[in-house]
Structure formats: C-alpha cells, structure tokens
Amino acid sequence: MTASSGDVSGSGERVFLRLGPPPEEPNQFVVEGAPQSYSPDVQARLEVEAKEIIGRYPNKGSALLPLLHLVQGEDSYITPAGLEFCASQLGLTSAQVSAVATFYTMYRRGPTGEYLVGVCTNTLCAVMGGDAIFAELKEHLGIGNDQTTDDGSITLQHIECNAACDFAPVVMVNWEFFDNQTCESARELVDSLRAGKPKDPTRGAPLCGFRQTSRILAGLRDERPDQGQGGAGAATLAGLRVAKEHGMEAPTAPEDQS
Ligand code: FES
C-alpha cells in the first residue's frame, strides 16, 4: 500500500491520503490451494491453443489479454500456474503478467462459479433499480459481493457501466446482457441458473459456463448458434429513428484543407 501527502488545501494544513486497492478487492492472486503449475497434459493442450492465438498478432506480447482469458478458462480465475504459463509463452516475467492482470476486473482473483452474475450499479443503472437488484440478489442468494454460492453455481458481483445504459438496469451473466431488469426478474434469472435451465439473454448468444465463456473471449471457436441475436436494440436506435422521422441529417464533413 502506498501513501501520499501534501498541502492540497492551500491553507498550509497537510492532507494525508492513504492509497491502495478498494477495501473489497481481494489481494493479489493469493488463493490457498491454487495450482502453481499445470500437468504435462494440460500444459501441452494449452500450448497448442496459445500458439494459435499468438499467431494472430504481429507482436506476441499483444496476445497477453487473450492468453489470460485462456488460462482463466482453465482454472476459472487467474492462478500462479496461469500467470507463469502466460509469461513463459510470451517471454515476459510473472510480475509483468500480474501487473496487467490486476488492472482489468474481468480477470478474476478467486474461484468463479458456473455463472458470474454481474449487477451494474454504476450511476444510471443504480438509480433505475440496479442498487435494489443487487441488494435483492445478495439477500436471495445469501452471499455478498464477489462471493459464490455453496453449490458453485453463481458468483455475484457488482459491476461498472457495461455501455448498455439505454437498457438500464442491466444484469450480465457471463458477460451476456439481461436488459431492463427488475428485482423479480433478476430473482427468476438466478433461480433459472441454479436450476440448470438458464434463461436466454435479451441480446446475444445462449449462455454457456464461465470457463467456456473465458475460452471464447480468448478467441477460441464459439460453437453457440448465431441467430442474429446481437446488434443494437430499439432503445439504442431511438435517436436515429426520431432523426429519420424529422428528415434530419448529419452535416457533411468540411473539405480536407491540408
Ligand atoms: S450505467 Fe449500467 S450499463 Fe451504463
């Protein structure tokens, strides 16, 4: 933990700021029993997949983010084994890999359930009901933020804005959107997950487990049916529709003067 002090008030009074991770954030990748290395079989399989991913980039260091998803798909979180694997494949140190992995909240620091349920509690979703939904799910599931149900089915998390504010309040399951949620619909959603009969997302492909989701995010093949579920919804296109109804057009760009 670091600290900073200085006269920021202009009054001569020194102000002391203690800096460090948010109090709710787990420490670095320290989980008792976490794998320190992979078995030869797993190592060989991951190396084949890593090679395919690395081959897509002119600079192999650019493959770090997808490789972190790849090892997260193996362990459900970032483990010492995963950090070491990424480092060895990319010619980096474990410290360099860890520095990147801790920057992004999509890389998990502890074991993750089959479904990562993220409730957006950023400003717009919060006032539209996200805070109430998060409180409801904590109560309903009997777990707190970043905790997993005893049956291993659900990890609950409050998340930041997922750029779906026009569908607020939004709940994401394994990064698929469930739009315009209510406390009741969110309860029904997690019940469907625990029953092994997951509801379909409002937009996007059918749900798969968290590890498989991580492998898809790594860039490996997505076997889920694509029936055109994605794309912009009516709320996102509302402004465009109104503009068309009123014959509005964007001004043309000025001629390039250079
Ligand atoms: S505030 Fe929730 S998606 Fe933007």
From TrEMBL:
Substrates-to-products reaction catalysed: a quinone + NADH + 5 H(+)(in) = a quinol + NAD(+) + 4 H(+)(out)
SUPFAM superfamilies: Thioredoxin-like
Gene3D superfamilies named in the record: Glutaredoxin (3.40.30.10), NADH-quinone oxidoreductase subunit E (1.10.10.1590)
Keywords: 2Fe-2S, Iron, Iron-sulfur, Metal-binding, NAD, Quinone, Translocase
Sample GO molecular function, one term: metal ion binding
InterPro entries named in the record: NuoE-like (IPR002023), NuoE_dom (IPR042128), NuoE_N (IPR041921), Thioredoxin-like_sf (IPR036249)
Cofactor note: Binds 1 [2Fe-2S] cluster.
Binding site for [2Fe-2S] cluster: C120, C125, C161, C165
Swiss-Prot/TrEMBL cofactor(s): [2Fe-2S] cluster
Keyword Translocase part of the UniProt annotation: yes
Any Pfam family: 2Fe-2S_thioredx
Job description of the protein: NDH-1 shuttles electrons from NADH, via FMN and iron-sulfur (Fe-S) centers, to quinones in the respiratory chain. The immediate electron acceptor for the enzyme in this species is believed to be menaquinone. Couples the redox reaction to proton translocation (for every two electrons transferred, four hydrogen ions are translocated across the cytoplasmic membrane), and thus conserves the redox energy in a proton gradient.
Protein family per UniProt: Belongs to the complex I 24 kDa subunit family.
Stored NCBIfam families: PRK07539.1-1
Protein name per its UniProtKB record: NADH-quinone oxidoreductase subunit E
Organism: Mycobacterium conspicuum
Lineage, opening ranks: Bacteria, Bacillati, Actinomycetota, Actinomycetes, Mycobacteriales
Gene, per the UniProt record: nuoE
